Amino acid sequence: MIGWDDVYKVVVAMVPLYVALILGYGSVKWWKIFTPEQCGAINRFVCFFTLPLFTFEFTANVDPFKWNLLFIAADAISKLIIVAVLAFWARCSSKGSYRWSITSFSLCTLTNSLVVGVPLMKAMYGQMAVDLVVQSSVIQAIIWLTILLFVLEFRRTGLDISSTTSNGDSGVQSLDQPGKDLEGDIEVMASSSSPSFWSLMKVVWYKLAMNPNSYAVFIGIAWAFVANSWHFQMPSIMEGSILIMSKAGTGTAMFSMGIFMALQENVVACGTSLTIFGMVLRFIAGPTAMAIGSIAVGLRGDVLRVAIIQAALPQSITSFIFAKEYGLHAEVLSTAVIFGMIVSLPVLIAYYAILEFVH
């Protein structure tokens, strides 16, 4: 049962994130320390250095031989349900958009499991729940964040090529224009003189090969398999070299988000309607899909409850970093992270109470 001490532990885990956020916001808005160009460089530093090392560090320390395969299957089914619904909406609805399908997928499925999920789930269901939340984080990094990274890189590379062939050297400047959509990009790439699909894919794979986020998690999980098979630990000199940067991963990501907020006209950068839309996807659509997937594979009892509640954890900070780097609805993701963490505690406790009552 959750007590005030447990709530306090979650608050203790969350408050430092907002301290980093406020420092980032103040460094631009109040103290004028960074220029807009420097702000972009800070986000790239987070994207290409602290975030991959953070991902490698937590992945390398899991024990994949103790994973709950039914839980992982339920998670995969829930994600595939959301992908199918969004793909149908993008293709068949007059309001459908592949750009918004990408962002909606992030809002529905990608969670901040480690910061909020671990202390709260431990208070609710003990160590078993913590193990499941960590499993969910690793699978999210291995599969879903990797797919998201590929889709974002494919979109940006296509925009870059199509814009360059249409406008010469000025094409790069139009990458992040909000009016661009993937449907139009595909039409251009299928023509304005553009390279073939496979030529485009070569460029995408090359860029992903240069992006440490593409392979940090795979190196980490490979290390986890080897280390747990042969029962040895990472050399301290190697571990220290990784930790010195990885410990800054979450903090620098929140700092970067604060900088991004400071550059916007309003604190709620995406507006009230999109904020509500993001909260609905985060706290209703995601858990609903997870409940369907969990019941489909036969999860029962506390494992079923953990699966549903962990799907309602606040928005992944990584999803914002990727959105900012690739110029796709960063304002929506930043708002989802900030407000999602604020409202997550009462929402998660409500889910816990409802699921216990149903039991």
CATH architecture: Up-down Bundle
Helix and strand run: HHHHHHHHHHHHHHH
How many β-strand stretches?
Answer: 0
What structural class do helix, strand and pairing data support? Answer: mainly alpha
End-to-end distance, in Å?
A: 14 Å
The residue ranges in which pLDDT falls below 50 over 5 or more consecutive positions are: 170-191
Number of helices: 15
Any idea of the CATH topology?
A: Na+/H+ antiporter like fold
Average pLDDT, rounded to a whole number, is 88
Q: How many structural domains can be distinguished in the coordinates?
A: 1
CATH class (first level) name: Mainly Alpha
Q: State the major sheet.
A: none
The shape is globular
Query: How large is the radius of gyration?
Result: 20 Å
Task: Tell me roughly what share of residues is in helical segments.
Answer: over 70%
State which percent range the strand residues make up: under 5%
Subcellular location: Membrane
Pfam families: Mem_trans (PF03547)
Main location: membrane
GO molecular function: auxin efflux transmembrane transporter activity
Description:
It comes from Ziziphus jujuba. May act as a component of the auxin efflux carrier. It is found in: Membrane. GO terms for molecular function: auxin efflux transmembrane transporter activity. The structure is a single chain. By secondary structure, this protein is mainly alpha-helical. It has a single domain, classed as Up-down Bundle (Na+/H+ antiporter like fold). Helix 2 packs across helix 14, helix 3 runs parallel beside helix 6 and helix 12 packs across helix 15.
